[in-house]
Design a protein that fits this description.
Blueprint (H helix, E strand, L loop, with lengths): L1 H5 L11 E3 L9 H13 L8 E4 L4 H17 L13 E7 L6 H14 L3 E6 L12 H20 L3 E3 L7 H5 L4 E3 L9 H11 L3 H32 E3 L5 E4 H4 L6 H16 L7 H11 L8 E3 L2 E5 L7 E6 L11 E4 L5 H23 L12 H10 L5 H20 L1 H15 L5 E3 L4 E4 L3 E7 L16 E4 L2 E4 L10 E5 L2 H11 L4 H7 L11 H22 L4 H4 L3 E4 L5 E4 L4 E2 L4 E7 L14
Parallel strand pairs: 2-3, 2-5, 3-4
Antiparallel strand pairs: 1-6, 7-8, 8-11, 9-10, 10-11, 12-14, 13-18, 14-15, 15-22, 16-17, 18-19, 19-20, 20-21
Helix pairs in contact: 2-3, 8-10, 8-12, 16-18
Length: 608
């Protein structure tokens, strides 16, 4: 059903989905169940973990539902919740809202998943900039889909998301399940459809077996490369609480690292810092490889949503990788709200899954007799090596190369259209990142900083006898601090730090009295009858907060400062910069923790 949801409204292909039901006994799927259990173990996932499924309604996602439901029920003693659904299993149906029929189709898919004992919910896409253009329709829909998956999993405290891609429909046949085939999958407008159709037409028994062998070898090689990259991360990369990383080039020794391993290493870091899971294209990856191998580092580079430069005082032997707020697509990751706090137990579950996955993958790689393709620098080189080691025949090689050349010609003919669509997409995505946030909840800013706004929590060092000065009062039903007049029931604007912010802090530190600070904060409506002791205390707090912030800023490189979240008032002046401890009011308690949604090296790692 996936491509049915993505079909443009103006397309002539608006046929209803075709439904398939297996009327025969079907093949024995015990082999698939055993293979699925082995792959889940390899990924460090156990039946008691909370799991979400991306359900589109096609044979791939319905097969995933069959296998996951059976695996979880058997391994978890068939435990169900009070509603009769398998405990800890949630299906997510994404309605892209790109066709009129999608609402009813999403409901049908939801019902089918629920009949299998899987609790299932529908999430609808909202397109603030209007529906995507045809040229970037699939990519935009995919980004929206995975953003919804992340939001639902974060809200439900689910640490595992499974999505499916299938080679055939035997699992659904064996499980006697209904699935849907979308007629738009036959539309040759999209590359993946053309390739799928071409491979199906060429699918002889020998060709299919050779392709499966090639895919298996590539997966093994990828697993090996990821393991090597993880070791490189542990040995040469430091992650700072302010949201940037430092690469020690001497420990990394990039001149003696193969292209594939170094490329994967860079992808892990860049995607972790930017929290953008888009593929890093060939030209951007070439720039990154050349940059990191140029030792000592004397220049800077902006690529794939990140800014890279030499670390201060390192003489070019260390590189800073920080988020670039000016990069395109930033606004797509702007802000999401959590209505419940993430507990330590949830975090420990994720850490244990990652730990188990590394253990099993290391053992799996160690047991493999050989590792192909490690020196290959292109898809053509992989195919040539596959022929040399007799993984595929010369005829299969010729067939694949022919398909590649056909797609290359199509790509070149559409290049102008793609560039125009990309420019339009970038223009829409680079809108200002200012949004309003409110007290009493937690928010994820740019999928990187978890901001928590607590109400009326006194800071350390405030003596209890200050209560007699009544710093918090009720005025027209709005709780506010009588000294600095910050309303605790109204929101504040959050944005990235700019150069003027730390210059402003430096100017505030020169103020000798609270009155000067008040003027800078443009709070001219102060009442004049406050107790002098309260004013003196608030003035001392403000100066102390500014000095603490400036001291911490000395150790944050200027390039990395620009990614810090800043809360400002209606005049765009900083009220709170939680990452460096600045707050203009002792009763304004906002904390920021660098907690990216996707962990380092823990992106969309495919085992299934």
């Amino acid at each position: 059903m996936l491509f049915s949801l993505l079909q443009p409204l103006h397309s002539p292909i608006l046929l209803p989905l075709r439904h398939f039901r297996c009327k025969c006994s079907g093949p024995d799927i015990s082999f698939y169940r055993d293979a699925f259990a082995r792959k889940m173990a390899l990924a460090g996932i156990k039946p008691h973990h909370r799991i979400a499924l991306g359900v589109s309604g096609g044979s791939d996602s319905m097969a995933l539902c069959v296998l996951t439901a059976g695996w979880k029920s058997e391994g978890f003693s068939g435990k169900v919740d009070s509603s009769g659904y398998i405990d800890g299993l949630l299906g997510i149906v994404v309605d892209h809202r790109l066709r009129p029929e999608s609402v009813e189709e999403a409901r049908i898919v939801q019902e089918r998943a629920m009949k299998m004992g899987i609790r299932c919910e529908i999430s609808c896409c909202i397109w603030p900039d209007g529906r995507p253009k045809v040229g970037d329709l699939q990519e935009a829909a995919r980004e929206m889909r995975y953003q919804i998956f992340q939001d639902v999993c974060a809200k439900q405290h689910i640490g595992v998301l499974l999505v499916a891609h299938h080679a055939d429909d035997q699992i659904c046949q064996g499980g006697k399940q209904i699935w849907v085939e979308d007629p738009t999958n036959q539309c040759t407008l999209f590359t993946r459809n053309r390739i799928r159709i071409a491979l199906k037409n060429l699918s002889s028994s020998s060709f299919s077996s050779e392709m499966k062998a090639l895919v298996s070898a590539c997966r093994l090689t990828r697993l090996f490369i990821e393991n090597i990259s993880h070791k490189m991360l542990e040995e040469s990369v430091s992650i700072m609480n302010e949201g940037y990383s430092i690469i020690d080039l001497e420990k990394l020794d990039p001149l003696n690292v193969d292209d594939l391993c170094l490329s994967r290493f860079l992808v892990m870091i860049v995607q972790f810092i930017s929290q953008r899971q888009r593929p890093i294209r060939g030209s951007a990856m070439k720039l990154l490889l050349e940059y990191i191998r140029n030792i000592p580092c004397k220049t800077s580079l902006t690529a794939a949503g990140c800014y890279l430069c030499a670390a201060p005082g390192s003489k070019g032997k260390k590189i800073i990788v920080c988020y670039s707020p000016e990069s395109p697509l930033s606004s797509n990751l702007l802000l999401s709200s959590f209505y419940c706090e993430e507990g330590a137990s949830f975090s420990s579950v994720i850490e244990q899954i990652v730990k188990d996955a590394k253990f099993y993958s290391n053992r799996f790689v160690a047991e493999s007799p050989s590792m192909p393709f490690l020196r290959a620098k292109s898809s053509e080189a992989i195919l040539r090596e596959a022929v040399q080691i007799k993984l595929i025949s010369q005829s299969t090689y010729n067939t694949i190369r022919s398909l590649q050349m056909e797609e290359h010609d199509i790509f070149c003919s559409q290049n102008g259209v793609d560039e125009a669509n990309e420019l339009g997409h970038r223009a829409r995505a680079s809108s200002p990142s200012n949004v309003q946030i409110y007290p009493g909840q937690s928010y994820h800013f740019m999928c990187r900083f978890l901001l928590t706004w607590k109400l009326y929590e006194m800071k350390d060092g405030i003596s209890s006898n200050l209560n007699e000065y009544n710093p918090i009062s009720e005025a027209d039903g709005k709780n506010l601090c009588q000294c600095c007049r910050i309303t605790q029931e109204h929101g504040l604007i959050i944005r990235h730090m700019v150069d003027a912010d730390w210059l402003y802090l430096a100017k505030l530190s020169e103020s000798q009295t609270l009155n000067e600070g008040r003027n800078e904060l443009e709070t001219s409506n102060f009442e004049t009858g406050h107790h002098l002791a309260m004013e003196h205390w608030c003035s001392s707090y403000l100066r102390s907060s500014v000095q603490t912030a400036l001291q911490k800023l000395k150790y944050v490189p200027a390039a990395a400062r620009r990614a810090l979240p800043v809360l400002v008032n209606s005049h765009n002046l900083p009220i709170c910069i939680p990452s460096i401890g600045f707050s203009c009011c002792p009763f304004l308690s906002i904390e920021a923790e660098f907690r990216p949604r996707v962990p380092l090296g823990g992106g969309y790692r495919s085992f299934l």
